[in-house]
Amino acid sequence: MTDTPQQVSHPVPDEERTWWKESVVYQIYPRSFADSDGDGIGDIPGIIDRLDHVADLGVDVIWLNPVYESPQRDNGYDISDYRSIHHEYGTMADWEELLAQVHDRDMRLVMDLVVNHTSVDHEWFQRSRRGDPEYEDYYIWREGDADGDPPNNWESFFGGSAWAYDEVREAYYLHLYDESQPDLNWRNPAVRRDIFDMMAWWLEKGIDGFRMDVINLLSKAPGLPDGDPDGDWVGAEHFVDGPRILDYLEAMDERVLSNYDILTVGEMPRLTVETAREYAGEGGPLDMAFHFQHTKLDYDGDERWSVGDWDLPELKEITRRWHDGLSDEGWNALYWENHDQPRVVSRYGDPEEYRRESATLLGTFMLTRSGTPYVYQGQELGMTNANWESMETLADVDARNRAQELMETEGYESFEEIADVVGYRSRDNARTPMQWDDSEHAGFTDGEPWLPVNTNYEQVNVAAAQEGDSVTEYYRSLIDLRTEHDAFVYGTYDDLYPDHDRLAAYTQTLEFPDGGVSERMLSVLNFSGSTETVDLPTTVENADLLLSNYDRDAIAPETDHEPYEARIFRLE
């Protein structure tokens, strides 16, 4: 008589697992990563030369910022040819070699998708401005009002009017970002067809997904009504999550995305948990989306070009709200930094006295929670904000525009008067060259770098991080833990002290579908620069210390916590 095989219960059934949920993504900003030819600009061969550093971290996916042909007014987010590689970055053959090298290291490659706007140099815009019948409606053109002024009061995210007058067409075109970035007219079926064809072209070349730039701005309200003049982004209520946005993204999914096993993540200004479920919930067109609520904690009110005190309970509330809101329907994208955000150690840590400790603590908070984490280049080193002494040293078009606007409208007479806030907020902080070693220009280039290297590069660099107890080694350990324990990926988040203003303590619990706990992890993080003590309301007698950013052996979770100390325990 043959025994009937017993059904084995697994905490995470195979049908609920996906590779992109279990991945850690590493973002590369090509212009600042590694320069192979000495022209001071990072390039694709430079990325290939440094791929082993990325692979050795244990990450699974690389997200590559735009390398397409572009005049580089906005560092590649102003695309003039979607199917060509910008000459400063290399050739299509270089890009194909990069893809092969990434895949050879068992990693995947995700490309940036920028389809809210193009460059004014794009052939579509050039033909549209000349009134070519095939392309005249590829962009959003309007006549001025009775006085010849812009059609409405919408503002550009980079400051000033969202309308620019074109002398050739003798009409205004919409640009929600820089005036060199005209918005595409997604109401035109031909625009959607050409974008979808382009996406399929890249996917057929073998890429593994798309990060989608400001993807919830594609749909503008018909009639282009005036926006609220008191809003922080005038007109946003008429173009953020516009009336046909889900139609456009669902068509994108049906025509292109659903035909491939890929990762899709949308960058979405003003995203809420409720709208995130529509975009990336069960049956939604995308896998996940980036929100910005935790990146605004250090604003003074709603004003981005300001600096205020931030609040740990508010960070924990945002974390809880997004976990709970997407736990049953959706998936979280976890990040601190990207090419648009200043360095997190300079914002929510201590870049001077406790740079290593706060960098590792912040990494712990990101990598020990359920969702897909995104590590930005240099974050694994604990890179910090730079010093910007003059407007001439800034390359960020947004920061330069804002500095000029502040001086013209607020009465400031010199850059020095606004250097603190502009320097703190500038996107250039994330774009200073990657710090490889302590040689000239941090080993980034043999030439003159396009943006100055951070002055702390002799101490903070990849070579130095290979010795001793570094931020990089700690990130490797975090990623290893995440790979070994499903609780960090699929577990349920429970905040033990939501109102504590200096410490965070939370569990990630993975349960069997038919009941019972498979794993429960406890993370205890001291977000302050002083020693803190807390009694944890959980069973800790048999807790195993898995990792700490201090030199710790086995230690109870409820003992004193040093400044910016992080501890991770396995409770059961």
TrEMBL record:
Keywords: Hydrolase. Residues 27-431 form the Glycosyl hydrolase family 13 catalytic domain. CDD domains: AmyAc_SI_OligoGlu_DGase. SUPFAM superfamilies: (Trans)glycosidases, Glycosyl hydrolase domain. The keyword Hydrolase applies. PANTHER family: ALPHA-AMYLASE FAMILY MEMBER, OLIGO-1,6-GLUCOSIDASE 1. This is Alpha-glucosidase. It comes from Haloarcula onubensis. The lineage of its organism: Archaea, Methanobacteriati, Methanobacteriota, Stenosarchaea group, Halobacteria.
